[in-house]
Amino acid sequence: GAVVSQHPSWVICKSGTSVKIECRSLDFQATTMFWYRQFPKQSLMLMATSNEGSKATYEQGVEKDKFLINHASLTLSTLTVTSAHPEDSSFYICSAPPGDRELSEQFFGPGTRLTVL
Amino acid sequence: AQSVAQPEDQVNVAEGNPLTVKCTYSVSGNPYLFWYVQYPNRGLQFLLKYITGDNLVKGSYGFEAEFNKSQTSFHLKKPSALVSDSALYFCAVRDGQDYGQNFVFGPGTRLSVLP
Questions:
Q1: Smallest CA–CA separation between A11 and chain B, in Å?
Q2: What DSSP designation does B4 have?
Q3: Is pLDDT at A27 greater than 90 in this prediction?
Q4: Backbone phi, then psi, for B53, in 5-degree steps?
Q5: How far apart are CA A94 and CA A96, in angstroms?
Q6: What is the pLDDT of residue B104?
Q7: Helix H or strand E segment including A93
Q8: Structure confidence at residue A100 (pLDDT)
Q9: Which has the closest alpha carbon to B27: B104, B81, B91?
Q10: Over pLDDT 90: what percentage of chain B?
Q11: I need a labelling partner for B92 at 20 to 30 A (CA). Which of A93, A108, B107, B113 fits?
Q12: Looking at the DSSP assignment, which residues form a beta bridge with residue B54?
């Protein structure tokens, strides 16, 4: 099946620093990738849709200047958390739909746990 | 807009017994329905999906789910639970007419299989 990777798998940073998370589709091309955020014991909340070659689409309430998304190629999307603060600590998951857009179930990365001190 | 409800936060079942994890949905167009499982500190793993065809869908690891249009439900089932099935389960829905591919996830149900 299709594989999506994320790097790093976990990161600890100081408050005020920026953190970049990479999402890669390893064996397929993805014109669209999705970024989710998951708080402990809660469901996934869609943050934004990353579109190759164009601007990302952000969900309501998500600060686009805080969470910068760049879909640099058909296999790579990055999420940069700028000036991170402790409330940004969370589990970030990306996903991508491979193949037939009608029927694909989406493939998820393993997630990145961000801890901001 | 679509929505998903998983009425049970937690389901406990003894190993070897059948399990059911409930899911109901709301969508304006044709429902595309999915079940995913998440182990601690891991991403989501696909279990099964319903797009069209037979209402009973068989998926990975012996799981199956039944699409019930009249009850707008898509309950996940397994005839005989294993301790290793203990995890967090998410039901998700997509509007088949939404080519944006946006999934909406339910709140999740934690399954504990007791030895």
A1: 13
A2: E
A3: no
A4: 95, -145
A5: 7
A6: 87
A7: strand A90-96
A8: 57
A9: B104
A10: 70
A11: B113
A12: none
Does residue B80 or residue A31 have the better pLDDT?
Answer: B80
Closest Cα partner for B20 from B87, B76, B97, B82?
B76
Instruction: Note the pLDDT tens digit of each residue in A31-90.
Output: 889 999 988 778 889 899 998 888 899 988 999 999 999 998 999 999 999 999 999 999
Which pair of structure tokens corresponds to residue B114? 């007791």
CB under 8 Å to B91, separation ≥6 — which residues?
B4, B6, B21, B23, B25, B33, B34, B35, B74, B76, B105, B106
The token pair at B8 is 């049970």
Interface residues of A toward B, Cβ cutoff 8 Å, are 1, 4, 6, 32, 34, 41-44, 46, 49, 91, 93, 95, 97, 101-111, 113
Task: Please tell me the distance from the alpha carbon of residue A13 to that of residue A34, in angstroms, as a whole number.
Answer: 24
